[in-house]
Structure formats: structure tokens, C-alpha cells
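Protein modeling request. Please complete all fields; requests missing the sequence field cannot be processed.
Requester role: graduate student
Desired output: 3D structure, C-alpha cell encoding
Chains: 1
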Amino acid sequence: MSDTGGPRGGASTLTIADLSGDVRRHRKEAVIKTSMFGTALVSVLISALIIFALFDEAFVFVREVDWGNTWGQIGWFPRRGIYDIPTILVATLIVTGIAMIIAAPLGLGAAIYLAEYANPRVRSILKPILEVLAGIPSVVLGFFALQFIAPTIIDNIGGSDSGSMAAAGLGVGILTIPLVASVSEDAMKAVPLSLREASAGLGARRMTTTVRIVLPAAASGLVAAFIVAVSRAIGETMVVFLAGGRSDASVYADGPFEPGLTMTAAMASLATGTDSVVGEGLTVQSLYFVGALLFIMTLTLNVVADRFVARVREQY
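Delivered output (316 residues):
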């Protein structure tokens, strides 16, 4: 019998089509891939429409507003056609600064304890508690800031018991602590154990290892945590709306113990119901303009943070 050169034992020759798998499986994967692409496309489209609507109305405000009423006036009075941007911008920065003064050290301290010093049992208890605190509705903390922080803390150090930027800042700070702690703790736990062991092997104390080895190695994650917290504080609405001490208008405030209106609170208070957004002709458009400013501020923060994190990130 002559050798035909085919596969032995009567097996048929394998082809590329045989190796490609079942046709029905390919069809299912194609349907899933198309569905996932569709959901991603819809998400991007919705985001693009929101941004377009935001900047479209903001451009109307930019084009038609009297810019002499947007800088150096007595305050933010949109129903009277006075859109003093520094009034709400400075209030936003004051509240955000106070919040970060509270949240950064407390959140970082909690993260260091959980990542470097807490035993597994304590960590298994405290970590979920922190995550639960992060889920408390901001309206609850807003009432807490108004009913407890303002009369019992701020009133005793020179502020008002009926709401102020200091009370709002403390409330936002408490709201932000779990976010800083959780993200920072995750960043520190990601540092390889070999670095800690090497430091201990050289005779370094635990605190020295934490300060000189772990924190620099986790710098990119820590910076990301702080930037996310700042963005969260800038965008917080309900706490500053309840505890800031102003309604839908505000005079320019010189200090944190005075009532103030942040950018988000200005938008929320002016838009409480469609019929309430009345007044001078550009009142509605002023809300979109303030929203566009918030969008640009948070976007800039995130872009700067991404570049900084990419520069200092360590690959292990």
C-alpha cells in the first residue's frame, strides 16, 4: 500500500476553519460585542449632549451679559441681573479649603493606621465602617452641620449659629474623610511588602518605613485621592446649600465665619422648581454658565492630577 501523505489512523486534515471554533459561539460573541459597543456609544453620546447643552446655554450668557456686572459688584443677585462671579467663586474656594484642612490629615491618618498598624481583625471592622460613612446621604450631613456644627462649634469661635461657610466647610470635610481614607489606604496597601521587609531588614523603625518608604511609593495614589476629594468638595451641593447660611443670593463674604453661597448652592437654590427661575433675562443662562465653570474647574483638576500621577508613578 502506498503512502498518501495524509493524517494517520484515518483522521481528517485540520483546517483553519476547524480551529476557529463553533460558529454559534462566534455569533453570540458578536452580538455581545455589538451590545457592549452600543451601550458605550450611548453613554458617550449622552455625555456629549449634556456638555453641548451646558456650553450652548453658557455661551448665550457669555455673549449677552453685561460683563461689568460680573466682577467687583456687591454680590451674587441673579434675579436683579447682578452676576458677581467672585462672590460664589471665593465662597467655593473657602468651603473647599476648610473641607480639605479637615479631610486631608484625618483621612490620611486613618489610611496610615489601617494600612500599616491595624491588625487584620481591627481593619476588618474599621474599613467597612469607613465605607458605610462614605455612603451617608449628604443631606443628613447638611442637617448635622446646620443643627450641631453651627450652634455648638462655629458659634463658640466667632461665627453664626444659623449657618456659615465654616459650618459648611466642616460638614463637607466630614463628608470627604472616608473618601480620602479609603482611596489612600488602597494606594498604600498596593505598595509591595518586599519594600517594607527591605526597610525593616536595614534596621528602620516602623514609622521610618511608613514615612520614607511607603508614603513616597504610594505618592501617585495619594495625590489621586486628594484630587478626587477636592473635586468632591467643589461639587458638593446639599451640605453647602443647607449649612452655608444663604438662600439664592449673597453679598461678597470676606471670611469663613460669614454666610456664603458656593457655586453649587447658587445653582441649586436658584433652580428649586422651574417657576422659581425667574428674574432678569439671563437668570437661567447664568446657571449654565456657573455649571460650565464647575465643569472646567473639575476637568482641569483631573487633567493636572493625571499628568502628575503619570510622572511620579512607580512601577513594581
